[in-house]
Protein: Galactose mutarotase
Amino acid sequence: MSNNPRRPLSGAQFNLESGDYRAVVASVGATLRSLTHAGRNLVVPFDADQVRPAYRGANLAPWPNRLADGAYSYNGEQYQVPINEVERMTALHGLVLWNEWEPRAQTPDSVTLGAIIEPQAGYPHRLAIEVRFELSAAGLDWRITATNIGTGISAAPYGVAPHPYLVAGSGTVDTWTLELPAAKILQVTPDRLLPTELADVATHDDGYFDFQHPRTLGATEIDHAYTALSPADSGGATEVRVLAAEGTGVLMRWNARTLPWVQIHTADTASPETNRIGLAVEPMTCPPDAFNSGRDLIALGTGERHEASWVIAAL
Structure:
């Protein structure tokens, strides 16, 4: 399959259908290429014969977000992984972004894809990763599991997140309303967006980043991790809602006990074609640079398995 010159640049395509929902998953990166409800985009899509832009629909593992200088220390050993965000000198979004993922199971409304993270100089662990996408009347259930299948090596540091850009309806982020039940924000350095300290959203910068009560995003620029998520029910579920002026919208729901962080990015770019056309909502197991801080970092022992999931649904 990978040697087929006629294959789209994003890889093999898997089309899913259930009721009014449609999704397309691409095999390169096990990427959510598009998701619609009754013909309306719920995420920013991209073409099949296009190299995935701006991490749209990507799976981020074994770490989400930035790793300063691509360097970290773990169990007394120093490691270096490749830097792929050169302008900020960071390693961004893990090691499986461009893997060719193999199909493991498929039905008309679901697909499961798998990949292996092989031991390497900067990450000497072997992980089996599986991603499952399933459509139903409740929306898209997107889940990722990781199993440490290595031997003779210490527990693997691990974190995970998705990278969809949500679309509420017509217009851009500026006209949409955001409801984000998070009480704290992780401040970052202005040049490299590396974490510094937590702040209360209600008081930090006069509430500039506070969306605990729904309000229009306007010109707000965000590329920050939030935490202290308020659950919507006793099971720990939390929801982020994005609404357009015409009343359409999209929500993202996950368990805040499993994913206590969420990165929000207003997709500010220099190009008018891509500037603020979607809102990145990335539930995360750990904050940026967790391989260095150790905060909420998962230690995945040999034979151990971790699962995280989230739902995207139309409003």
